[in-house]
Amino acid sequence: MSCKVTFLPINQTVTATRGDSILEVALAHDIPLHHACGGYCACTTCQVRVKEGAQNLSAIEEEEKERLERADEVGPTSRLGCQARVMGDVVVEMVNTD
Ligand code: FES
């Protein structure tokens, strides 16, 4: 089953396979989502803010939560792109865009 993921601020919508992480979706479509640790929940550069469809992401797990608590610029809708898996349509805003 496929879903749609929209990345802000570049406003690019791509098709994703259900179960892929936001980072995997981004990399498959050449979207510049940072991933300094390579997707191992060890950096937070892949942080996104979920704008729509938070219920369509996999539940946050303890490791991701702890990592986010130590990150800068974290808000109530923050997720790590390498940990959050897409289960339906979502709109996310990338935090690190430079
Ligand atoms: S890529 Fe490092 S925590 Fe997600």
In short:
The protein is α+β, with helices and mostly antiparallel strands.
Strands ordered across the widest β-sheet? 2-1-5-3-4
Q: What fraction of the residues are assigned to beta strands by DSSP?
A: 25-35%
Enumerate the spans where pLDDT stays under 50 for 5 or more consecutive residues.
Answer: none
Shape: globular
Mean pLDDT: 96
The radius of gyration over CA amounts to 12 Å
Total number of helices: 2
Report the biggest beta sheet as strand number plus sense, adding barrel if it closes.
5 strands, mixed
The small molecules bound here are: FE2/S2 (inorganic) cluster
Give the topology:
Blueprint: E1 2-8, E2 12-17, H1 22-28, E3 47-52, H2 62-69, E4 78-80, E5 90-94
The structure holds FE2/S2 (inorganic) cluster.
Structural features, described:
The chain is α+β, with helices and mostly antiparallel strands and 98 residues long. It has one domain (2-92): Beta-grasp domain (Ubiquitin-like (UB roll)), CATH 3.10.20.30. It contains two helices and five strands, in the order ββαβαββ. A hairpin with a 3-residue loop joins strand 1 and strand 2. The chain binds FE2/S2 (inorganic) cluster. Residues 35-37, 39, 41-46, 80-82 line the site of FE2/S2 (inorganic) cluster. FE2/S2 (inorganic) cluster binds next to loops.
